[in-house]
Specification:
Layout (H helix, E strand, L loop, with lengths): L7 H9 L5 H46 L3 H14 L4 H13 L3 H14 L4 H13 L3 H14 L5 H10 L16 H9 L1
């Protein structure tokens, strides 16, 4: 029985089909096994497209709501978008922005940390998280996020610029009139007279 195999499946096949139609029986058997899988994949793909279309519609509504400062509604819609389509990257960013506008920076941080967990290769989330930390006056955490963003996308100049701006000491060499000093523009005006 060399070359024919020796499993129970071969014995069943040999009894059911004559020797000349084994290939056809095998092809039909494989087709019958793969057909339900293909149908399930097709149905899932259709559901994903429906979810994406719904997410896109909700995102458009959320953008309009942010524009009109209806932030609770925008937040609700953006959370639905992320639930339907976690790969809708703009929704994560806009949701964090809505929480910042709502004076909920802790929720913005949570959203961005979750975005970093779900999409570890997207540097934009690290950069945005760094900006939130800058706004909260936590430069060490901000620099940590900018460094992570630079590692993920060394071509993007924004994290490096932001980090550099944090590293520079505050420059207050030009004092305003309230300090008893004239600013640079006031000195030029005096020399022109």
């Amino acid at each position: 029985m060399r070359g024919r195999g020796s499993g129970a499946a071969n014995l069943v096949r040999m009894r059911v089909a004559p020797a000349g139609s084994r290939r056809r029986t095998l092809s039909i058997g494989i087709f019958c096994l793969l057909l339900p899988i293909a149908l399930a994949m097709s149905l899932r793909a259709q559901a994903q497209w429906r979810d994406f279309d719904r997410a896109r519609s909700l995102y458009a509504q959320a953008e309009d709501e942010v524009h009109h400062r209806h932030l609770p509604e925008a937040i609700e819609h953006l959370e639905q978008v992320i639930h339907l389509c976690p790969d809708y990257l703009a929704a994560w960013d806009l949701l964090a922005h809505c929480y910042l506008l709502s004076k909920q920076p802790d929720r913005a941080i949570e959203v961005l940390q979750e975005a970093c967990r779900v999409h570890p290769g997207i540097s934009q989330f690290r950069t945005t998280l760094g900006l939130v930390y800058v706004r909260l006056e936590q430069p060490e955490k901000a620099i940590e996020q900018f460094d992570a963003a630079m590692k993920l996308d060394p071509i993007d100049p924004m994290p490096a610029r932001l980090k550099q701006s944090l590293s520079k000491p505050a420059q207050s060499s030009v004092k305003g009139p309230e300090d008893g000093q004239h600013g640079e523009s006031d000195q030029k005006a005096e020399h022109a007279q």
